[in-house]
Amino acid sequence: MIFELIIGVLCIIGYFYIRLKIKWNFWKDHNVPFPQPEFPFGSTPMFGWNSFKQEASMNDLAKTQAMALGFPKFYGNYIFGAPNLMICDPEMAKQIMVKDFDHFVNRQAEDFIKLLEGGHFVDQVWANQMTALQGDKWKNTRATFTPIFTAGKLKGMIKFMHEVTNDLVKSVDQEAKTGKAFDLKEKFGKFSMDTIATCAFGVNAKSFEDDKSTFAMNARAVFRNSRWDVLRIIMALLPGGKEFLNFFGSPINKKHVTLFFYDIIRGTIEHRMKTKTRRNDLVDLMIDAMKADTPPEEDKDTEGQFDQDAKLNHKVVSKQMDEITMVATALVILVAGYDTTAQTMAITSYFLARNPDIQEKLYQEIMECVGEIKNEKGHPDYNQIQSLPYLDMVLHETLRINPALGIITRVCSKDYLIPGTDVLLKKGNEVHINAMAIHNNPNIYPDPEKYDPERFTKEAKANRHPYAFLGFGQGPRNCIGMRFALLEAKLGLFAVLWKYKFVATTETVEEFTLDPSSFLSAPKEALFVKVEERQQ
Ligand code: HEM
After folding, report:
1. Which atom of ligand 1 sits closest to the CA of residue 133?
2. Residue 435: CB within 6 Å of ligand 1?
3. Which of 217, 238, 302, 518 has the highest count of CB atoms within 10 angstroms of its CB?
């Protein structure tokens, strides 16, 4: 209690300290639109006050801010006193994410990463995650690990995904037999968890057998921020705050959850190296990737603009990594891959239940493919699953309406004059690409609230700016796991939709709202539907 009281007092001091730092007129002086200031952190409801109040999700705020300002190309707000640019225009997004990438290699503010580095051991693990790494260290890590997600490597991993689809279908079959509605978020959470656990760590997380498996409970805890979690972050940003927390043995990040995964990952890596056993899963591929003599593999699936723009011209200096970087990289696969994929699958299935005509069209496509499957278990191979355009369109439309990350951040690492303006961003200023604004702009996507996969036909995409879709980010710092995620989601949905139909019931919400306590875009309500077995 006393501890919390001291933190409360420090936060009040910090509030006034931050207020003094805010350069209130920065955007006004540059004639850049900005939302009305909101108590207490200036006009920046994204982090700070709103995260603490937990009233609206970041995606909702990003969307409503851009709507209120009439979808400008860009607008400004403030983050802890520093001007932050919000980009709502695809061409400007391309400028930042690709053309001027040199100025925007980093995702998080240097000050924040410095807070994590050199502090509590748990915070050092988080500072070494690919999502957080900076500059050359990030380039080295990214270039070293990119080859583990090539089409060739994914083909080798597909058998593990097939095993988990068997468990998923068994579980869906039980739901069909009871005829009761069940929560899609829970079902696909288990699927995603078990897929990552087996592909990345060689662990059977047994989520379908045991609802409360320790692995699952800990993985879920990574994504849920209590007020105390937010308070620690705010506290750490204040002068002396980190030292205060560390003095009491408290890291800024979640301690028990981090240590749980750290132990699993380190144990697996040690075991593999000692016993020289191989599964060809992500852990093995990571160990391979770090061997100096591994020749770079040519990836034939990278002709599209997305992949071209993602190319990172960087010569890896040394592949030798310390233990923390290795474990942190494995941990990020779980952190970045679990909830994102689970939510995408759950929301897709919800939309299919709500739109029976779309589900029917997808079913027809799947049934055509089923006729070509040769193995008796009915598992599509890599090429078969990739040859289903409508399934791909459906997933992309889900991510348009509900991108897992509605705001994609970059930090300016050298001064940058925004093209066509007199706005000079200084080193350390943040830039947020407002994917929610771009995805909901009626001039780009007419009738944006409507779920309509036809927006992602080849022709429709060719008629739009390529950066009008930001579901997986763009440029050299885009989502490294995109192909893994799409493969997993397609296999899971294929396996279920072939035999069962998602049906909305009275328990199915008309619309879902987003959970403000999750930094990812996740429905707050349960997504209840029932399944009916199809007559084959
Ligand atoms: C549907 C599922 C997924 C979605 C929607 C998604 C989306 C994203 C987005 C929007 C970013 C930021 C990109 C940017 O800043 O330009 C990102 C980064 C990242 N994602 Fe994913 N992701 C998904 C699944 C996965 C999976 C399965 C993995 C790992 C196997 C993964 C690993 C990562 C990593 C490591 C980064 C940081 C990359 C870097 O900083 O270099 N993601 N993801």
Report:
1. 40
2. no
3. 518
